[in-house]
Each structure stands twice: as structure tokens, then as C-alpha cells.
Write a structure and sequence with these properties.
Blueprint: H1 4-24, H2 27-43, H3 47-63, H4 67-83, H5 87-103, H6 107-123, H7 127-143, H8 147-159, H9 186-193, E1 198-199, E2 206-207
Antiparallel strand pairs: 1-2
């Protein structure tokens, strides 16, 4: 399980760096530091702060006409929705992130948003759409030499064949890792369902 304290320390360092970059007028580096702050807050499961930081990132990215960082912010919004297993909300965020990633010509963000969107689609029973996106995510990850992340998309693609193509009912909700898209084992899914902290046995992401 990833240590929340590690991400708290990362957030503080990124915050200090952002203040320094802003003081020096290095706006591009300042917005990157803000992205790191938001991601650290997300991984530390400080969702209230993460939401505020991703919104600040979105505003800064719009203000500087940066589709790259707008895509990063939308990925963050999608991740927050996935961690609540709110798949319909996640669809909108990741679709926006994917479109912005394409506009920025960033395979990094098209890959991550495609993986997130595939997870959200899988959670709503849109299996064919999820499969298409998982293939796209794997392809983009391979194109930028990120074979480990590509393997996440490929594993999800291999596992998805057993899913029903019908939208799941409330009682038949699919519990998926928000980061790697792996289906949670029954014991971990039950922990998430009860509002407890669980861990993805595939990538180690803490959920809940």
C-alpha cells in the first residue's frame, strides 16, 4: 500500500517549489508544480484539497491556453469520480481530458484519459467502447515507452471479456481500481462497498 505520508511530503515540496517559481515569474514550471500538488493530494486521499487544486489547475490552464494542463486537470476530476465509483461522472471528465490531450498532441495524457474513460465505460456496461479505449491506451503507452502502464491496459482488456454487456444494477456494481482498471477481488470490493480502505492487489493503489 502506498504511504499517504509520502505524498503529503511530496505535496509540501511541490507547494514550496510553486511559490518559488511564481516569485521568479516561471509560470510554466509553477503550473507543473501545481499539477504535482494536485496528484499528491489525490494519492494521499485528501480529496477535498485535491478537488480544489485540480480546479485551480484547470483555471490556470485555461488562463494560459494550455490544453495539456487542462487535460491533466480533467484526468484528476475523473480519478476523483472513479474513487467514489461514480462512473457516469467519470465518463464526462475523462472524455474532456481525452479530447484536450489530443489537442495537445500528448500521448501521455491521451493514454491516461483513455484508460480512465475505459474504466468508467466498463463500470457502466459499455464493454465494446471500453475495449476500444483500452487498445488505444495500450498503444499510446507503448509509443512513449511506458510498457508497465501499457500492461495495465492490456490486462484490463484481457479480463473484460467475462463482463456482461448490460448496464450493471446497483446490486451488481463492478468495483474497479481507479488507477489500473483491474477488477477488485471480492474481499477488497466488499471493503470499498462498506466505505473502508482497500488496496488494489495488482498495482497497489489505495482505494476508499
Amino acid at each position: 500500500m502506498h504511504s499517504a505520508s509520502k505524498f503529503d511530503k511530496g505535496l509540501k515540496k511541490a507547494e514550496e517549489a510553486r511559490k518559488l517559481f511564481l516569485k521568479r515569474g516561471q509560470n510554466e514550471r509553477a503550473i507543473e508544480a501545481l499539477r504535482v500538488m494536485a496528484d499528491c493530494a489525490l494519492n494521499a486521499r485528501d480529496f477535498s484539497r485535491a478537488g480544489k487544486l485540480y480546479e485551480e489547475l484547470r483555471r490556470d490552464a485555461v488562463g494560459t491556453a494550455s490544453p495539456l494542463y487542462q487535460s491533466a486537470a480533467q484526468w484528476g476530476f475523473g480519478q476523483m469520480a472513479l474513487r467514489k465509483m461514480d462512473y457516469p461522472l467519470a465518463v464526462g471528465a475523462f472524455q474532456a481530458g481525452l479530447d484536450l490531450g489530443k489537442k495537445a498532441a500528448s500521448k501521455w495524457y491521451t493514454a491516461w484519459n483513455a484508460l480512465g474513460l475505459a474504466t468508467a465505460y466498463r463500470g457502466t456496461g459499455r464493454i465494446a467502447d471500453a475495449q476500444t479505449l483500452l487498445k488505444a491506451a495500450a498503444s499510446d503507452f507503448h509509443a512513449i515507452d511506458q510498457s508497465n502502464f501499457a500492461s495495465w491496459a492490456e490486462k484490463a482488456l484481457a479480463d473484460i471479456g467475462g463482463d456482461s454487456s448490460s448496464p450493471p444494477t446497483k446490486d451488481m456494481k463492478i468495483w474497479l481500481c481507479p488507477m489500473c482498471a483491474a477488477k477488485l477481488p471480492p474481499a477488497e470490493a466488499e471493503r470499498v462497498r462498506k466505505g473502508k480502505l482497500a488496496t488494489c492487489t495488482y498495482c497497489g493503489t489505495s482505494i476508499g
